[in-house]
Design goal:
Layout: H1 8-28, H2 33-50, H3 55-66, H4 70-89, H5 91-109
Helix pairs in contact: 1-2
Length: about 110
């Protein structure tokens, strides 16, 4: 079990360091976001080691934190894939063309 929970100030500082590290490497160093996330994970691993936490407790916390969000993530992935297929097949562009033609025709009738 975890020895002592972090205080609000300590958790806020860790979150600030995460955001600052991501921002620095993505904005100023022009590094890929994936590499910046890996660097943040290394920083967090050092923090966890410094706090003397067990890997099992961290893993359990990660799984418990991710579990409620898995279903919405899968739904978003499937919706994104469906929209990508519709765009590639030309369905979305066709609907946009017909929609714009209808709105232009209505606006021209009014003049």
């Amino acid at each position: 079990m975890l020895k002592k929970d972090s205080s609000f100030v300590e958790a806020s500082l860790v979150l600030l360091v995460i955001f600052a590290t991501l921002a620095y490497f993505v904005i100023f160093v022009q590094m890929s976001a994936l590499i910046a996330i890996l660097i943040v994970l290394m920083v967090l691993t050092g923090y966890v080691y410094w706090k003397d936490r067990s890997f099992d407790a961290i893993h359990k916390g990660m799984v418990e934190g991710i579990r409620p969000g898995i279903i919405p993530i899968v739904i978003f992935i499937l919706v994104g894939a469906l929209i990508a297929v519709w765009i590639q097949a030309g369905i979305i562009p066709t609907l946009m063309v017909y929609g714009f033609q209808g709105s232009v025709a209505k606006s021209q009738k009014g003049h």
